[in-house]
Every structure is written in C-alpha cells, then in structure tokens.
C-alpha cells in the first residue's frame, strides 16, 4: 500500500529537517528539565511571601519551635498582643498568630493547641504557612507520643526513622513527577496544534498539496499520510524523551500503554484540530490564531472541570470542561483507566474531523 | 488514438467566463502547444485537465478515462509540471524527488534508480544533496520538471516550464522534451506564451485568448489561416530578365521582385514546389549563394487573428 511508503518518506523528510526535528524534540526535553529543576530546587515548602507577627504567651518552651516557619519577615513578641495588633493595624504585618499559654502543656497531653490568628482580610497567601505550622504541631505531638510510649528512646531516633520514610516519599514523588511531565507533554502537544497547522499551510502555500493531488492517489491518502507521519513523529519523539527520562532520571513508568494511548490521542486531537481550523478559516494567520486559542481554552476548561486549583469556578464552566478531550485524557492518566475515556476522546476527534472536512476540497484546491 | 480529449469545457470564476466552450484532441506521441497571452486561461485549462479544478461544463478524458469519474486511472497517465513551483524548500533536491516519486507509487530500488534518472536528465546530479532554498530559479525549474518525470508518464504536461530561466537551462529542457518524445513516444502538452518555443517544439497547437479558441490545428494549418502564401528569398548571380520571366511562369508563383543579386518571390504554399525553380536556375548556370523559405510566424498569426501582440 502506498500509504506506508508515503508515511515513510514523510517521516524521513522530517527527520532531515533540523528545524522540525529540533522543535519536536526540544519541547519535551525542556519540559523534563523544567520539572526536574523545579523539583530539585525545592526541598522544603516554598517560602511564604508575607510578613507575620508571632505573639508568644506560651509558658513552656515548645512554642518557640514553630518560629522556624519560612516567612518573608517575622516579628516575634512575648506577651505583647497589643503591640502585635498594632503592627497589624499599621499594615506592617499581614497576620498575627497568638501562641497560647497552654501550648506546651497541650502538646504534652497529646492535644492540639489552638492558635488564634488575626488577619485583616481573608486570603490564600497564608495557607502554606499555616499548613507548615500545623505540620510542625503534629510532629511535636507525634514525637512526644513516641518518646512517651517508649517506641523511640529519644527525639533523634525519630529522625533516623524519618530519613527512611523520607526516602520512601521521594520515590513516590518521582512517579508524581512522571505524572506532571506526562501532563505537560500533553499540554504542549495540544498547544502545538498551531505549529502543525503552519506545516500544513506551508505545504499548501508552496503548492505541494495541489501538486500531490494530481498524482494517482486519493486525496484522503495524501492528507492522511501527512497527518499520520506528523502523528507518529510527535508521539515517538515524546515517548523517546519519556523513556530517556526513565533511564536517566529514574521515572517509574508503570502503565506505559496508558501513557502511549493518551499521547496518541492528544496528538490526534492536535492534528485534527489544526486540520479543521485551517480548513474552516481561509486566512492562515486567523486560522492558526484560532487554533491556539481553542487549544488554550479547552485546556483551561478541562482544568476547571478537574477541580483542585479552580474550585470556585461556576458549575456550568466545570460541566463545559467535560466536553474537552483534555479532561478525559487527564482523567485517564490520573485513574490509569482507558475505558470509557479513550472512546470518548476518539468520538470527539471524529466529530471535529467531520466538522472540518466539509471544506476538504477547497483546502486541496486553490 | 486520441490520448487526450477535451470537449466543450467551460469555466467561470464568479461571473467571469475564463474558459468558453473549449474543445480539442491530442494524439498519442504528439507535442501539442497551448498558447495564449497572460490570463488567457491556459493554467485554468491545465488544472481542469489534471483534475485540480472542476469545469462548469464539458468533459475531459485522459487515456480514455474521464478525469472526473475515473480520476485515479486518468491520473496514472500523466506527470504535471505546474506553472507555480511546487517544491519543499527546506530539504534537498533528492528528498524532494523521493517525496514526489513515492506519490507516483515508486519505492525501494526502483525509486532510487528513477531519482537518479531524473537528476541526470535535468542536469542536477551534482546538486542533489543541496537544500532547494539555495537553488537558483533555473535549477528550481529543472527540479520542478524532474519531479514529474520519474514515473516516465505517457503524457507530460508542462505549464510554462521555462519562465524566468537562462537560455542554457531552456535548451536543456527543450532537448529533454524532444528526446522523450522521440525515444519513448511520450505525448507532450506544452503551455507557453513564447511563440518561438511552440514554433520550435510543437506539431499541433491550440491558440487561446480570453478563454476562447483563436486557432487550432497543425502548425501549418494554423499559419495558413492568415495566409497561404510563403516568401522565398534567393541570392544568386546572373540575374537576367529572361530568367525572371521563366521563374514567374512556375506554378504557384504569385509575384517576383528583383534587385541586382536578389530575387524575392511570393508563392502559394500548396502549389509551389522548389524543384522546378532549382531546375531553371541550374539551366541558367546561376550560382546560388543562399535560398530561404519564410513561412508566416505564429507571432504574426496571433497578431492577425486577434489584432493584439502576444506580449508587450
Ligand atoms: N481562482 C481564481 N479565482 C478567480 N479568477 C481566477 C482564478 N484563477 C484564475 N483566474 C482568472 O482566470 C483567468 C485565466 O487565468 P489563468 O491562470 O488560467 O491564465 P494563464 O493563461 O495561465 O495566464 P499566465 O500566462 O499568466 O499563466 C485570469 O483572468 C485570472 O485572473
Ligand atoms: Mg498560467
């Protein structure tokens, strides 16, 4: 069948095109480097960007322990809540924490002490800090408990133990990284739709497609071979980068087939989207602009639908997000399932393909 | 056998009639010229013949197959050299030929052989590894041709293949066209607005202007549309009145003028024969220094038929 030969020469041609090869490989490599760099650089929680005041009324000595939390700057006052509130009033700090008298006592009784906070307004900026304080308190209680029950003889033993759990945790975060990397690769594959569109338009502008149509091949075979070679090229280059990541960075790839299927689906979506857009919009710059916009928009919608970061988005937007292929692709990766996600995405691609193909003839001809 | 038949083809763009009821046939093994000034509708006609455009009316068959109904079978017959260059600029000449060769169903060893054949005949072998974007205009034109001949089609359709190239490249292309026509009996459709090219290459031709047929037939017939008369110019010695009288009495001679060493004849194309003239000159012991027969050229034909010059 001629299709295979056509795909073969197309891929060979792309491999010989340094620019194209670079673009296709640089993106995934950059993603991996980026994710690793971010991860490698942050051993603790990221420092808060706010100013805080702690007023310590604790009669014991554990209250001081939580001061190690990372903040932009901190005021440490002892038994001077008035001064602390004045700082808040003067806008010099964004929040005041009052560490109560019974702080040490409660921890020693394995209870959680209540820390009062005074803020001017509600905001998310303090969440990491408060989580850190919370963790610290939990740790203090745990330490106390373990020492008292004789599980460990001293506080230091806890850290020996923790070192090994830390290692466990690290292994887990690498799979987490793989997840992030895969997601990012898929973002970029779909965002790259406009690049593919440019390639197709370039072919059209340089009369390659119209010339190809005068050869004894079906139009579908010609466009199909170009699209399929782009697909294979894209999936292969992303996969190679992931496998290299497994070898050199130590990603723990468990469900390779799910990753491969989703890479293929996203590439397919990306190509179909760009084909449809270049066909619907005759003006190429508008076409590629709209392609990029659609890619972005569907990405955001899928993120709204997936919840988490954008929890307070209106419900109808979340529902709308479920009509994007990204939502189902990410869902498939998240849950390690293929059914029904793959099926749904394929249907979406098919719908897009049919929507775009009514102008197929016009695209091929002048 | 008619390898190409174009029957009553009309084409409108919006409301503008670009082709108006065009019909002609091309015999296998012919070199057929399609001539007309810029915007005459030549490329539109080629696009319809090669299945790139649909006509509003009429029918085209290639090798007996209707281009609209049995498209793929019809397309197997020809290779098209489009007027607009159709090349992938970012890769080498070789890679381009590999791409287009594959589109013609070639692969493997055969593909390699055909690529080097095409590179050879277009004189691009030394440049095959170079990126097309570095090519000169003439080299691109030759590569554009090479891409259409790898599968050695029965029909080669060329749409203004010599635009913007130097005489050397142009001769190269002419020799190639004559060669495949002679050696492989390839039918050639040659489109141009250079009359002298068509005059040199073609046996039959179709002249088109503003979408309408101006003239169609063999080169000789088309020329005879404006005049059946040719000019014969002789340079000889010993011109006498007696000789002039004898020449005037030859069949087909309409008029005879002479100066001291030159005779200019106006003759009827169909009746006039050279032999009696040569016999008379021999009997007269005249030394012939030169003799030439001048037919009206296509440029003049076009001017006479349309009242326009082909090019400014
Ligand atoms: N896609 C199109 N839409 C509208 N008009 C067109 C289109 N293509 C060609 N035309 C018009 O049709 C006429 C014939 O064009 P065509 O390209 O066939 O001429 P041509 O004989 O090949 O000229 P040239 O020698 O310049 O190549 C021109 O007037 C041109 O403007
Ligand atoms: Mg033209």
Ends of chain A: how far apart? Answer: 28 Å
What is the quaternary state of this protein? heterodimer
The secondary-structure element order of chain B is: EEEHEEHEHHHEHEHEEHEHEEHEH
Count of discrete alpha- or pi-helical segments spanning 4 or more residues of chain A: 15
* Structural domain tally of chain A: 2
Percent strand of chain A: 5-15%
Strand numbers in spatial order across the main sheet of chain A = 2-1-3-4
What's the Cα radius of gyration of chain A? 28 Å
Structural class, judged by helices and strands of chain A? Answer: mainly alpha
Can you tell me the residue ranges of chain A where pLDDT is under 50 for at least 5 consecutive residues? 41-47, 160-175
Q: Tell me the distance between the termini of chain B.
A: 38 Å
Helix content of chain A: 55-70%
Task: Briefly note the CATH topology name of the largest domain in chain B.
Answer: Rossmann fold
Approximately what portion of the residues of chain B adopt beta-strand conformation? 25-35%
Query: Which molecules are bound besides the chains?
Result: adenosine-5'-triphosphate, magnesium ion
What order do the SSEs of chain A take from the amino end to the carboxyl end, as H and E?
HHEEHEHEHHHHHHHHHHH
Largest sheet of chain A: 4 strands, mixed
User: CATH class of the largest domain in chain B, anyone?
Assistant: Alpha Beta
List the helices and strands and how they pair.
The complex is a heterodimer of chains A (366) and B (312).
Chain A (H helix, E strand, L loop, with lengths): L1 H15 L1 H24 L9 E6 L16 E6 L2 H9 L5 E5 L3 H6 L7 E4 L7 H22 L6 H37 L1 H13 L2 H6 L5 H30 L7 H25 L3 H23 L8 H7 L3 H11 L5 H17 L2 H5 L2
Parallel strand pairs in A: 1-2, 1-3
Antiparallel strand pairs in A: 3-4
Chain B lengths: L1 E12 L2 E12 L3 E5 L6 H8 L7 E6 L2 E2 L4 H5 L2 E4 L11 H11 L4 H14 L15 H10 L8 E5 L7 H18 L2 E6 L2 H7 L2 E6 L2 E7 H8 L2 E8 L4 H8 L4 E6 L3 E7 L5 H10 L4 E7 L3 H9 L6
Parallel strand pairs in B: 3-8, 3-9, 6-7, 7-8
Antiparallel strand pairs in B: 1-2, 1-4, 4-5, 9-10, 11-13, 11-14, 12-13
Helix pairs in contact in B: 3-4, 8-11
The structure holds adenosine-5'-triphosphate and magnesium ion.
């Amino acid at each position: 069948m001629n299709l295979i030969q056509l795909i073969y020469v197309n891929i060979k041609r792309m491999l010989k095109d340094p620019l194209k090869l670079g673009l296709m490989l640089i993106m995934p490599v950059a993603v991996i480097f980026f994710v690793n760099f971010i991860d490698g650089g942050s051993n603790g929680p990221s420092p808060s960007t706010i100013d805080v005041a702690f007023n310590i009324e604790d009669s014991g000595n554990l209250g001081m322990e939580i001061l190690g939390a990372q903040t932009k700057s901190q005021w440490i006052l002892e038994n001077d809540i008035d001064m602390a509130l004045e700082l808040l009033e003067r806008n010099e700090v964004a929040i005041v924490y009052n560490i109560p008298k019974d702080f040490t006592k409660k921890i020693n009784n394995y209870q959680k002490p209540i820390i009062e906070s005074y803020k001017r307004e509600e905001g998310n900026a303090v969440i990491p800090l408060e989580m850190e304080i919370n963790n610290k308190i939990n740790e203090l209680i745990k330490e106390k408990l373990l020492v008292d029950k004789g599980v460990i003889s001293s506080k230091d033993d806890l850290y020996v133990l923790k070192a090994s759990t830390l290692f466990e945790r690290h292994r887990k975060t690498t799979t987490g990284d793989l997840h992030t990397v895969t997601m990012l690769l898929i973002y970029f594959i779909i965002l790259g739709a406009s690049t593919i569109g440019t390639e197709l338009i370039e072919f059209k502008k340089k009369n390659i497609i119209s010339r190809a149509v005068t050869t004894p091949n079906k139009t579908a075979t010609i466009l199909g071979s170009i699209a399929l070679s782009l697909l294979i090229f894209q999936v292969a280059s992303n996969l190679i980068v992931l496998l290299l990541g497994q070898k050199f960075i130590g990603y723990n790839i468990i469900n390779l087939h799910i990753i491969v299927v989703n890479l293929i689906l996203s590439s397919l979506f990306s190509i179909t989207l760009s084909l449809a857009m270049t066909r619907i919009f005759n003006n190429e710059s508008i076409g590629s602009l709209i392609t990029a916009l659609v890619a972005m928009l569907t990405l955001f919608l899928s993120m709204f639908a997936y919840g988490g970061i954008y929890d307070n988005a209106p419900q109808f937007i979340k529902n709308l997000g479920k009509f994007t292929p990204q939502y189902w692709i990410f869902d498939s990766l998240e849950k390690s399932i293929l059914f029904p996600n793959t099926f749904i995405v394929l249907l979406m691609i098919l719908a897009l393909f049919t929507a775009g193909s009514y102008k197929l003839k016009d695209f091929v001809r002048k | 056998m008619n390898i190409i038949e174009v029957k009553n083809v009309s084409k409108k763009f919006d409301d503008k009639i670009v082709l108006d009821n065009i019909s002609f046939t091309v015999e296998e093994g012919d070199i057929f010229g399609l001539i007309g000034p810029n915007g005459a509708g030549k490329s539109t006609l080629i696009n319809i013949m090669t299945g790139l455009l649909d006509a509003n009316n009429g029918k085209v068959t290639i090798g007996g197959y209707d281009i609209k109904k049995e498209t793929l079978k019809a397309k197997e017959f020809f290779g098209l050299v489009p007027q607009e260059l159709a090349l992938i600029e970012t890769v080498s000449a070789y890679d381009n030929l590999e791409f287009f060769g594959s589109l013609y169903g070639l692969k493997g060893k055969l593909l390699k052989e055909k690529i080097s054949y095409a590179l050879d005949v277009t004189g691009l072998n030394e440049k095959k590894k170079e990126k097309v974007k570095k090519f000169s205009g003439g080299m691109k034109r030759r590569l554009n041709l090479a891409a259409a001949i790898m599968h050695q089609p029965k029909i080669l359709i060329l749409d203004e293949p010599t635009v913007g190239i130097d005489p050397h490249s142009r001769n190269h292309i002419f020799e190639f066209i004559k060669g495949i026509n002679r050696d492989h009996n390839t039918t050639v459709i040659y489109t141009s607005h250079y009359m002298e090219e068509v005059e040199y290459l073609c046996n039959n031709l179709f002249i088109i202007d503003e979408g309408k047929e101006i003239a169609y037939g063999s080169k000789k017939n088309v020329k005879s549309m404006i005049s059946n008369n040719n000019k014969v110019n002789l340079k000889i010695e010993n011109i006498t009145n007696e000789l002039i009288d004898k020449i005037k009495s030859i069949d087909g001679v309409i008029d005879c003028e002479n100066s001291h060493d030159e005779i200019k004849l106006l003759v009827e194309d169909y009746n006039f024969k050279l032999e009696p003239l040569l016999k008379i000159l021999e009997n007269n012991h005249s030394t012939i220094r030169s003799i030439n027969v001048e037919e009206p050229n296509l440029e003049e034909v076009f001017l006479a038929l349309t009242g326009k010059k082909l090019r400014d």
